[in-house]
Each structure stands twice: as C-alpha cells, then as structure tokens.
C-alpha cells in the first residue's frame, strides 16, 4: 500500500507492531486519530510514555505496580496466608475479574518449557520459596494453564515445597486441558478457583 505521507506510514507501521492489529486496522486507527482532536492524541502519548517509564514490578509478587509493592500485596483486606501461583500478570487480572479469590498472588513469569528453552532458573521460583518460608503461607493454589508445561511446573514446584508444612491445591479442571488460563470465561475460572483440588506428588506423576 502506498501512502501520501511518510508520517502516516510510520504511524501505521508502529500500530501494526501491536498484537492482533493488522495493516488495515492500523490504518483505520491512524486515520481516526487524525480526524480527532489533538488532545486525545496527547493523552494517548502521555499514557504510553507512563507505561514505559513509570510502571514498576512488585518486589513481592512480581505483578505490575505503581509503587515498589503492588496494591494487592499491600492490602490488609486480602487473605495473607493463601498464595495463588500464576504464570503471568494477565492471569492475575483474569482471576481478579471473577471476584472469587481474595488471597495473594505470585507471578512466575512463565512455565518450565524445555522445548522453548525455559528452565526453572529463569522463573520467579526462589522468591516463591522465600515467601513460603518467611510469611507462614498455609495454602498455595497452583493456577497454571492446564498444559503439559503447566503440569510439569506444578510437579517441580510441589517437590520444592515438600519440605514445608503448606497445603498445595490446583484449580479444578473446568478449564479445558491445553487451554490458556487468560481465555477462560469468568464463571468457569471462578468456579475452578472455588473448587480447587488437593495436589500430591503422586497425582502429578
């Protein structure tokens, strides 16, 4: 596609870099912004700059935050002895949308995946062990996507946590095997959290 303006072309190319936005959608968005007032463009630019420069990683759970500790970890209304282990920040958001869970989180930053070259040392596992040891965690909910890599990660974590007096449970398999947690509907995901099952090393074999 030929553009009459190199500036417009650059805007289209930039928007096209975002997931799920093709060239036509990028062009449509660019033209929409051009027709709109400059105040909206400035607002978008300011928000994106803040996303780049101001967002932090929570030092406790590895969620995104405005401060050194995120609002969830800093809340006194959350159950301090229950920890939900998830793969990504998107999973935290998905579970929060259900309104069925009021404990704390721990974001691993992925799952063990030998085919993708991701080992246990590349995940936030050491800090998880430290939290269990220091904070007196009573239950850990393994809310990882029901895939082979997710199950492998749960099995590995369970072995690492076997030395502690902590209950380990997994979300009920209302979430289909092989699916991503973030794409599960709110009702199914909420019920999976509420109907979580005890996990043993034997069941993970």
Parts with pLDDT < 50 across at least 5 consecutive residues: none
Total number of helical segments? 7
Distance between the first and last residues' Cα: 54 Å
Secondary-structure element string: HHHEEEHEHEHEHE
Q: What would the CATH topology of the largest domain be? A: Dna Topoisomerase Vi A Subunit, Chain: A, domain 2
Kindly give the count of domains.
2
Strand content: 5-15%
Task: Estimate percent helicity.
Answer: 40-55%
Short description:
This protein is of the alpha/beta class and about 200 residues long. About 40% of the residues lie in helices and about 10% in strands.
Write the layout of secondary structure elements.
Elements: H1 6-16, H2 23-35, H3 38-53, E1 56-57, E2 64-65, E3 82-86, H4 89-98, E4 104-107, H5 126-135, E5 139-142, H6 148-161, E6 167-170, H7 186-194, E7 197-198
Parallel strand pairs: 3-4, 3-5, 5-6
Antiparallel strand pairs: 1-2, 6-7
Helix pairs in contact: 1-2, 4-7
